[in-house]
Each structure stands twice: as C-alpha cells, then as structure tokens.
Fold this protein.
Amino acid sequence: MSLYRSDPNALNMDQSRIAHCIEVLCQKGCKEVSLTILALERDEPMAEVQELNAGERRAVLHELQSIMAVYREGGTCR
C-alpha cells in the first residue's frame, strides 16, 4: 500500500488498521464498497471507520476508489 507513503501525514497513520478496515469493507462486496465510498466522500459517520483518524479515513477512501476503478473498467461489479 504505497499510496500512504505519499501522504505527508503518513507517520500519523496506523497502516495495519487501514489495511484491516479495507479488508473488512471489501468483504461486503462491491455494491457496499460503492456506498461506503459515497459515505466517506460526504464525511458521513460510519461504524467501520469510526476508530480511524481523518488521514486514515482518507487513505481508506483513496484505496477503495482505486480498487473499485478496476471493477468499473471491467464492468463486473455485482
């Protein structure tokens, strides 16, 4: 997850919590991940990310967007 290294706040981020959160969210399926992305973009409260700081939530959002880009290109989101 080299994405986080480009963030100047990366030192304040817990990479294992970010990775765990992404894994948990992805297990819900791509439709739920799409809804999660919308919620994160709107800064809506979500149980799955409540323990993360703002930088970690942004990292989760960017990683989920990256993951979902692959599905959008292939048109295989179910």
